[in-house]
Amino acid sequence: MWHRFTERAKRVVFFAQEEAAGLGDNYVSTEHLLLGITREPESTAGRILQRAGLSMDMIRSEVEKHLTPGEDRLGHDMQLTPRAKRAIDLAYDEARSLMKNYIGTEHLMLGLVREGECLAGQILKKMGLELDRVREMVVEIRNSEEIGEKSMRIPRTWKTDTGTQMAGKDLLEISYLTRDEIDAIFELASRLKIDAKTTRDWRVLAGKTMAMIFEKPSLRTRVSFEAGMTQLGGHAIYLAPSDIQLGKRESIADAARTLDRMCDIIMARVFAHETVVELAKHAQVPVINGLSDLEHPCQALADFFTILEKKGDLKKVKVAFVGDGNNVAHSLMLLASKVGAHFAIACPNGYDPLEKIACASESFAKETDAKIDIVRDPVDAVKDADVVYTDVWASMGQEHEAEERAKAFATYQVNSDLMSKAKPNAIFMHCLPAHRGSEVTDEVIDSTQSVVFDQAENRLHVQKAVMALVAG
Ligand code: CP
Ligand code: NVA
C-alpha cells in the first residue's frame, strides 16, 4: 500500500517515525502520525486542520499532554501499532470511497478520525473534528484554488501508480487498459466532474487538435468528445462519412499518415474494427475507438464509472446485460472482468458475445475473481443483479436484420416485470439511443431506477480524462 502514498503522506509517516524515535519508541502509534501531520502544515490535512481553526502548535501541545516515553527499542525495525495499522487501512478505505488511487494526508487524517478508539482520534474529536465534517472539508478543499493549480499539471506528467505512462497510448479495446490505468481514468474523471461545476481552468490540451472520423451517426459520442476537447482548451474537427470516405477516396493508411501530421489525437467511429486498428498502425498519435462493430470502450468506461458512483465497490456488483452480445456487451464484459465484477449476459441462441471476447474475459477474470455468465433466460441473468443493462437489438449497420432480430429478441425486453426480478434497488442502464417499446419499455427507462442520462453525462467526464491522459 505504501506505493500509493503521496510524497507528503510519506513525509508524514517519516516524521511520525522521527517523533516515535525521539521518544525512544520504535513503534509508530496514531499520536505520532498526528504529530507527523503537524510537521506538514502545507499538506491538505494541515490546511484542513487550520481551516477548522486549529493551529499546528495547539494540536502538538494537546498530543504532548498524552505522550509517555516508550521503551528503548531503538535498533529494531520501525513498526506500526495495531491501531496505527488500522488507521492506515481506514485511510486506504476513505481514499477508495472518494475514488482516489493515491493515499494523501487528508485520507490519513480521515483514517485517524475514523479509528475513534485511538488516542489521535480521541484528541481530534475532543478538538471538534467529527468524521462527517472532515469528509466534507476534504471535498471542499479539493475545490479550492491551490488544488486546482496542482490539477492543471497532472495530465502532462501523469504516471499511474505502477509508473505506466498513458501518453501516446491508443484506446481501441478494453484489453489495452491495465487495472491501474482504469483507476487513473476514473480518478481523473471524478476530479474533472467535480471541477466542471466550478470555474477551474482545465485547459491542459490548449493548442491541440483532435480529428473525429465518423462512418456512422452519433449524438453522445460526437458531442461529448467535441465539448470535452473545447473544455480542455483544444479543438475537435468533425469529419462526416462523406468527407474523407475512408478506404474509398484514399486508403486508411494514407488518411492516418496525413492526420498524424496535423492532429494530436484521432477518434474514430467505424463499421469494421480493423479500420481503427489500421488507423492506429499508421498514425503515431493516439487513436481512440468511438465505437466499432467489435467494441465501444469509451461507453463501457463511462458506464462502470457511473456504476462506481451509484453502487461503490465494483467487486461487489452484479451487472446483468439482457439482449444482443454486441459491441457494447463486449466492452462491458471485458471491463467487468478487469475490475472484478460479476457480469451475466442473457441472449438468444445465435446472438452470444464472440468467443474470443468471452475467452479474453474469462482469462482476465482469473486474475480479478470476476465472474462471467452467459445464459439464455433473462430472469436467470437479472437474479440478484445491482444493474440491469440493455442495448438495441439491431446495431448500426444491421438495420436489414431488424425484423428477424425483433422475433429472436421478443422475450428479451426489459420491462417492469423483469426489473422486479432484480435487486429492489437495482439501477437500469442503456447506452442510448433506445428503441422504446422494443428492448425497453417507457415505464422502465423513465422510472426512478433509470440512470441513462447520468451515463450519457459521464461520457463527457470520462472521455475528457482519456484525452488528457493520452494526449497530455
Ligand atoms: N451511446 C452512444 O455512443 O451514443 P451515440 O451513438 O449517440 O454516439
Ligand atoms: N450497439 C449499438 C450501440 C450504439 C451506441 C450500435 O452499435 O449501434
Briefly, what is this?
By secondary structure, this protein is an alpha/beta fold.
Global geometry: globular
Q: What would the CATH topology of the largest domain be?
A: Rossmann fold
Task: Enumerate the strands of the largest sheet in spatial order, edge to edge or round the barrel.
Answer: 9-8-7-10-11
First-residue to last-residue Cα separation: 27 Å
* Oligomer kind: single chain
Individual helix count: 22
Number of strands: 11
Distinct small-molecule ligands in the complex = phosphoric acid mono(formamide)ester, norvaline
Give the name of the CATH architecture of the largest domain.
3-Layer(aba) Sandwich
Helix percentage: 40-55%
Largest sheet, in brief, is: 5 strands, parallel
Strand percentage, roughly? 5-15%
List low-confidence stretches.
Answer: 72-76, 145-164
Q: Structural class per helix/strand content?
A: alpha/beta
Q: Characteristics of this structure?
A:
Double Clp-N motif, alpha/beta, binds phosphoric acid mono(formamide)ester, Rossmann fold, five-stranded parallel β-sheet, 472 residues, 3 domains, 51% helix
Overview of this protein structure:
- It is built from 22 helices and 11 strands.
- The chain is of the alpha/beta class and 472 residues long.
- The chain folds into 3 domains: 2-142, Clp, N-terminal domain (Double Clp-N motif), CATH 1.10.1780.10; 174-296 and 459-471, 3-Layer(aba) Sandwich (Rossmann fold); 303-451, Aspartate/ornithine carbamoyltransferase (Rossmann fold, 3-Layer(aba) Sandwich), CATH 3.40.50.1370.
- The longest helix is centred in the C-terminal third of the chain and has 20 residues, at 452-471.
- The chain is globular.
- It starts with 6 loop residues before the first helix and ends with a helix.
- 47% of the residues are buried.
- Residues 72-76 and 145-164 have low confidence and may be disordered.
